[in-house]
Fold this sequence. Notes:
Two copies of one chain form a homodimer.
Chain A: E1 6-10, H1 15-26, E2 30-37, H2 43-56, E3 61-66, H3 68-77, H4 79-88, H5 103-118, E4 122-124, H6 140-153, E5 161-163, H7 171-180, H8 203-215
Parallel strand pairs in A: 1-2, 1-4, 2-3, 4-5
Helix pairs in contact in A: 1-7, 7-8
Amino acid sequence: xxxxxxxxxxxxxxxxxxxxxxxxxxxxxxxxxxxxxxxxxxxxxxxxxxxxxxxxxxxxxxxxxxxxxxxxxxxxxxxxxxxxxxxxxxxxxxxxxxxxxxxxxxxxxxxxxxxxxxxxxxxxxxxxxxxxxxxxxxxxxxxxxxxxxxxxxxxxxxxxxxxxxxxxxxxxxxxxxxxxxxxxxxxxxxxxxxxxxxxxxxxxxxxxxxxxxxxxxxxxxxxx
Amino acid sequence: xxxxxxxxxxxxxxxxxxxxxxxxxxxxxxxxxxxxxxxxxxxxxxxxxxxxxxxxxxxxxxxxxxxxxxxxxxxxxxxxxxxxxxxxxxxxxxxxxxxxxxxxxxxxxxxxxxxxxxxxxxxxxxxxxxxxxxxxxxxxxxxxxxxxxxxxxxxxxxxxxxxxxxxxxxxxxxxxxxxxxxxxxxxxxxxxxxxxxxxxxxxxxxxxxxxxxxxxxxxxxxxx
Lengths: 224, 224
């Protein structure tokens, strides 16, 4: 029996969430990994990345939840907005193509439900404020408010802290952090394209490659 | 084109949520009705109630979302707790048999995402504090904290108010309120049993029948 405190970590399979997972382990938590499917094109690649990262870290508690309704909500009425997002958006694979308002609140609600069931003491989310420029639910003030929602909406004996260790890092710093704690970047998937190898050209790939370049570290995944 | 402000109303098909819907209409909102499936036994009865109530009120904006993952989360590790809940639990059909921690946060997150897409100005939830005795996410302090989460996690131009008009009412008062605004109680479904007519004996039926009795109003649905 593990006597470590448990943390629910949202693990998309991208590099940010992989680093977040590594940090939770470094901090002494037993990780319970939560993966969310949005019905996105690269869903199977991301699920594979999730499973590989879990295996690497020997994570036994895993939960995969389908929240493709969020994409439907976003897609049904935000068509113009969606197009704009797809063209200009710079982010990790954590963020779906179709921008959905209040997405992180949905994710944190699911993570907190599971955390309370597991008697976990923390929820990790690899949100990066810089990536989510203009996204209100990527800001510290939002996470603070959600913390209060957890404090009031869970049992008195429950104490779940939201931890956002990447919130104020840039991609270079995330790469350096991950490298220092031996995060298996080779298993992560960031590309928006669904092909055998990452395209190297989409917004997500370019952001990732720039992070590795600035960190002077070789990205171990293969590109087309 | 409607020029009314829009409100997303969570509408399970039970009497509380039906009254909540009626109140939103009385207050001058165009209602966008959100129905959640948990994979509960009476799912089809509740969906039928939802559709009938929407038709009655001429509600055009409808969204049905499957959140059976919440039941899986609850059921997977809370077996003992679940049994206790099923035996002792008094509530409307809004509450699933399997108690899920932080359920209302999940529901409000979905409702808020849809509300922001619709440019709605309110989210109604028919939570009743009395019913949820011991449920932290049925208390006013929780809804206040979630309001702050909405304020910080949505666009600066978005102003969505959470409204909980039933929070401090008892079942008798809910019946009287619904009756005064001609809520179609005949279409509502509260019973935990999946049979042609309501059983009249489960916790939910008994609570409902007592409410009607105390209000000196005849419950228009048929019982076995």
